[in-house]
Design a protein that fits this description.
Chain lengths: ~325, ~280
């Protein structure tokens, strides 16, 4: 069925395909004197899963809101689905699905009613909206909560309902602002699984996150954003290849003076980073670093060799950790 | 079907069920949303109807005996209850629409963030404002209709114009809902609503509601005539007593302008607050 619908997509007599669903050039957003987004260039293509990875306050939500045509840009140019959000907001919004950072579910309505009412805002008929609501409740596994009050749902269930709601209008582009922030691991994995299925089915995803594992799992391509500026762009693997070594040796010493120890390790790898509680040595072969440290007579309290992640890329590019 | 597949819902670009253009009546879907919430809250429904009725009964049973009859400007004599009942109709139209447009809208705007979700759909701020306004008018029309029927049953109406009284109540509702919604967009906390109460209570007591305009001191009469509720009372009283006159046209114009200005300001402000 998945393959079939892709074939239909290829053969179907649809409107001229817009290959770039989002095109931002030198896009800016200011709130009074505060510049939240300071000139970013982004192109999101149809069918891909595109991510914004960055810490809190980086300007992710501000960017998503501009793209979702609910926040006017302060500068630069932005095209969404080939249209100008400033002039054609309703037309753009009718074809987007949006999961805002705070769910904005309607707590005065039941779970199912949230979908019914929201679908009507898109001009769907009652029958159509009822059919989709039931199907989407099954998709996010909330069928048995259909009649529950929204306030009685856990954070994970609310998030799933928000995802279902964002799909009610059959969107061409699904925007997810921090889809799993604040969820427990089980809830996160369930949601990732659902998003992954959407991705498999060809839905274009645009998501923000400050979890590097989320970005690695879900995104075909991503930008790393910090303080309103894009500092790197590429696929997760490409970014890691370009900006970090293959492996990392994490060393914790029993001393307070990690910087002092680190100074003696520089020759062991391509790069050494000092964090408050540990030293990171970046090298092609992490085990070799660990062995060399041992030979130097430095006794690390703990040693961990792992592959480089996007977290390391972020640390490299900004000098800070994502979690800050 | 399995839970995992939503292909027919989210096919990439193909065979999509394109949502219908919403057109000019998009606001009705917000009315529908409010109705869903409201129909569960029947207690609130009853209170909206009960309030003016209780006023009416207390006046009819108690005060009428003390006050006696009234002579209207057109020379006809009415009982005190007949005099006050249309004013209660006007006042309850004011209260009901203010309740929806102030507390109701504030709650959804600042606490529940209902409109943040609504504005992520094709609906625009003006649709939100119109939707809320229409909703409060629908509710107000129901109450007004029921109240006028009660008036007729109790023999408190003396004119065929009475059939228009519910319409007058809707016009009053329009004025106060529009203005109330506009003011609400500037409210920061629930305490700020005390200002509205502060304006409404004296208006309720002194808009020629309980005694005619000519009983007010000369210097105060013009002030009374400036208040919107005064015009609402003029309208309702003219219709139920049959003492119709040009001043009623002025009243209608006053109330329509007030509501429209409020509506325009409210939709601009809702946009400015939420689409930042
Ligand atoms: N509505 C707003 N008014 C004023 N400042 C805002 C508003 N929204 C965001 N900001 C500020 O803009 C910056 C970027 O915020 P945001 O886009 O939410 O970042 P992120 O989503 O990456 O955490 C922050 O400093 C935030 O405080
Ligand atoms: Mg954010």
């Amino acid at each position: 069925m998945g393959a079939q619908s892709v074939e239909q997509a290829a053969a179907g007599p649809v409107e001229a395909p817009v290959e770039a669903l989002v095109e931002a050039r030198n896009l800016r957003k200011s709130y009074g004197a505060l510049e939240a987004v300071r000139g970013i260039d982004v192109t999101v293509r149809r069918g891909e899963a595109f991510g914004f990875l960055g810490p809190n306050g980086a300007g992710k939500s501000s960017t998503m809101r501009m793209i979702a045509a609910v926040s006017p840009a302060s500068g630069g140019s932005l095209r969404v689905l080939g249209m100008d959000p400033g002039a054609e907001g309703p037309a753009i919004r009718s074809r987007l699905g949006v999961c805002p950072q705070d769910n904005t579910l309607d707590s005065e309505l039941t779970v199912r009613e949230n979908l019914l009412v929201y679908g009507r805002f898109f001009g769907l008929s009652r029958a159509e909206v009822a059919r989709r609501a039931d199907e989407l409740l099954r998709f996010v596994q909330l069928t048995d909560k259909a009649g529950s009050r929204v306030d009685d749902l856990s954070g994970g269930l609310k998030r799933r309902l928000t995802v279902a709601r964002s799909l009610i209008n059959n969107p061409e582009l699904l925007i997810l602002d921090e889809p799993t922030t604040g969820l427990d691991p089980q809830a996160r994995h369930l949601l990732w699984d659902r998003l992954f299925r959407l991705k498999q089915q060809g839905t274009t995803l645009l998501l923000t996150t400050h979890y590097m594992d989320e970005a690695e799992q879900l995104c075909d391509r991503l930008v790393i954003i910090d303080e309103g500026v894009i500092v790197a762009e590429g696929s997760p693997a490409q970014l890691i290849r370009d900006h970090s070594s293959r492996e990392v040796c994490e060393l914790r010493f029993g001393v307070d003076d990690h910087a002092g120890v680190a100074a003696r390790l520089h020759h062991l790898g391509e790069r050494v980073e000092v964090l408050p509680d540990r030293v990171l040595v970046y090298a092609e072969d992490g085990e070799a670093v660990a062995a060399a440290v041992h030979e130097m007579g430095l006794s690390a309290r703990s040693t961990l060799v792992r592959r480089s992640t996007l977290e390391d890329v972020f640390l490299r590019l900004t000098g800070r950790s994502l979690a800050d | 079907m399995t839970a995992d597949r939503v292909n027919d819902l989210i096919a990439p670009g193909a065979a999509r069920v394109v949502p219908q253009p919403l057109g000019r009546f998009a606001a009705r879907h917000l009315v529908d949303r409010n109705y869903r919430v409201y129909r569960r809250d029947w207690l609130l429904f009853i209170t909206g109807f009960l309030e003016p009725l209780l006023y009416l009964l207390s006046i009819g049973i108690g005060i009428e005996q003390l006050v006696g009859d009234f002579t209207l400007p057109n020379g006809s004599r009415v009982s005190y209850t007949e005099f006050v009942a249309p004013a209660m109709l006007a006042a309850s139209a004011m209260n009901g629409s203010l309740f929806d447009a102030t507390f109701g809208v504030f709650f959804k705007l600042k606490y529940e963030k209902v409109y943040d979700a609504v504005l992520a759909t094709p609906l625009r701020p003006v649709d939100v404002a119109v939707g809320e306004l229409v909703w409060s008018l629908v509710r107000g029309a129901l109450y007004a209709g029921a109240f006028v029927v009660v008036m007729a049953v109790l023999g408190l109406t003396s004119s065929g114009w009475t059939v228009l009284a519910p319409v007058a109540a809707v016009v009053i509702g329009y004025a106060f809902a529009g203005a109330g919604m506009a003011l609400t967009t500037w409210m920061r906390t629930w305490q700020d609503f005390d200002f509205i109460t502060l304006a409404v209570l004296p208006m309720f007591l002194f808009s020629a509601t309980f005694f005619p305009l000519d009983r007010y001191p000369d210097g105060v009469q013009w002030l009374v005539q400036l208040t919107p509720l005064y015009h609402g009372v003029v309208l309702c009283r003219g219709l139920t007593t049959g003492a119709v006159g040009v001043e009623m046209l002025i009243a209608v114009a006053y109330l329509l302008v007030m509501g429209t200005v409020g509506l325009l300001v409210a939709s601009r402000r809702i946009g400015a607050l939420l689409l930042r």
